[in-house]
Amino acid sequence: MKKDIILAGVGGQGILTIATIIGTAAVKENLNLKQAEVHGMSQRGGDVQSHLRISDKPIYSDLIPKGKCDVILSVEPMEALRYLPYLAEDGILITNSKPFVNIPNYPSEEEMNKMYGELKNYIKIDADAIAKEIGSARSMNMVILGAAVKHLGFTAEQMQDAIKEIFGRKGEKIVEMNIKALLAGMESAEKNAK
Amino acid sequence: MEKLLLLGDEALAQGAIDAGMSGVFAYPGTPSTEITEYVQHNEDAIKRDIHRTWASNEKTAVEAAVGMSYAGKRAMCCMKHVGLNVAADAFMNSAFVGANGGHLVAVADDPSMHSSQNEQDSRFYAKFALLPCLEPSSQQEAYDMAFYGFKFSEETKLPVMVRLTTRLSHSRAGVERREILPENELKLPEDPDQFMLLPAYSRVKYKKLIAQQEDLIKASEESPFNSYEEGTDKSLGIIACGLAYNYVKEVFTDSECPYPILKICQYPLPKKQIHEIMAECDKILVVEEGQPVVEEMLKGYMPNDKIKGRLDGTFTRDGEMNPNKIMAALGMEDTTGKDTPKNVAGRPPALCDGCPHIDSFQALNEVLKPYGSGHVFSDIGCYTLGYLPPYNAINTVLDMGASITMAKGAADAGLFPAIAVIGDGTFGHSGMTGLADCVYENTNIVIMILDNATTGMTGGQNYCLENKLENVCIGLGVDPDHIRVITPLRQHHEENTRILNEEIAYEGVSIIIPRRECVQTLKKKIKIRNAVK
Q1: What is the pTM of this model?
Q2: What's A2-99+108-192's CATH class?
Q3: Do residue B435 and residue B486 come from a single domain?
Q4: Residue B209 CA to chain centroid, in angstroms?
Q5: Distance CA B271, CA B306 (A)
Q6: ipTM score for this prediction
Q7: Other CB atoms closer than 10 Å to residue B193's CB: what's the count?
């Protein structure tokens, strides 16, 4: 078992929570893990990414080599594309479709569609809308995680256990909300796979 | 023992706690901040009441660590690479006085400058000071090196540098813990002259330090962190230092590396193994994170095409290492996916929505319009982002504290108005002496101390001058009539520009303190408050 995952987004969108949950699931399965994060200046509204590597064998590099990433998991559609040089030939890109526009030269909808038109293997879902629909607007990142579960080499139960462990301190209600978002994301991904 | 998932920074912190550390002394700076923050929140550290309050700056931190070592206890000081410049006086001389209780100097370098103004390599400092240096290649080594480092420091009676780099500092992996050791008892140095650097004593100590170098080399040769891996193809030997070792191993995940590899994680260089690989291999590839420290030593000054690395163009001269750079250097087929589409726009960091600095910059920009650009000297912090559009509000950044002193120098040259923009944390770090210079000469200057009640850029740490800014300025001799506190909010814009104009017109030292809490720390506080409810 070996998965190289790049998590992408904009500072403050909560990609590190996704990383923590996948990491917790991996540790429970006794897998090796390395997760490189970005701290400091770039966290202020800039692009952020995290390299997450999981394997049953020793992992050396904290960074994923270009062309070797199995899954790009992004909470923002333009940020997902930034890391294409890392994506393996048979890798998959899973992203939120809702743009986060805090720059003047953000690509137009037409340009975005064109860029996505050239990809062969991706899942794009409106995770913000799905989260809102189930009454948990703040769980957008769990919707995206849900959309990816199948491609990360984990079962839904393993992810739910990890969510319980991470959010357990915050109470039953928060756990429930996040699991609901996870399942909604899984369902949506089934429908939206290209 | 228990296995923890830790950042490299946290692994070093946990190691130091478990190895019986009695105090951590530090000033925040990316990528080193999490070492101290981890100690601050660690249960064992709290139970033992290990010293863990932030210092004013890196120099005071190193000096306090030397003091704790003098008293026989194990101490660690932590800083980012450029922080070691601030602490350099204390650090260089600490090699002469040495250590009594174990003393670790943890320095986190930032190659590729993710969050820094340069990418200097702290190993040069260790070599400069003739001190041993440990450079972990993994989170587990960072943990283990705390134990090894404290012990080695006490055996050699020398401070030991631990050099981290960004990708290790901020990467998480499983770390196996050991039994926690007791702290040292208070015990003054046996030799009463040990911590005395009058010239006559210094001359003796320098000779001793030089004589000790052979022992340090021998220790490196026998170090558990240095290793020699045999290879069948002797056309090339690889010397891989610290984290760069991982990148070499990474490119041989699916195959055996044919070349001998010398892994170096303890300095000074292990002479025996260096001789061995140099004699055995036709060419040597030096892979190191940061500057070509080892490569330069091996290459020497005369033409020498045996050594490959950053100096001959095999690798780029600057920037951090990665597996792809190594594949290219070894002539292996590079792996890369599709190019990033051209329409993907850059997304530089920016000031947060509602940040008080935005209002300060808007006021400043307005009053400076009649004078043209080029009048604002700034400093290290979130407000450095004020250089970028749409603000374009500042003109210079050099180092911590330089806003005030550069503005002073420009004022001395005749520039009017000369404005310094510095954060409250940075002012506490190294702004006060600059202000004292200005007061001493009654320099015609306006100093804006942006008071957001925290050290913002590094994630909101406490700092030494909290709630003391006005009193400190008065104490340093600023006329209280020209210390003006303003509220950086849109509804105060007109009043704020009026006050700025008044102080520009005043001939002498003016302090303007725009005071409003950082929106990030405020958000955190509200979250905690709501959670309590």
Answers
A1: 0.96
A2: alpha beta
A3: yes
A4: 26
A5: 18
A6: 0.93
A7: 13
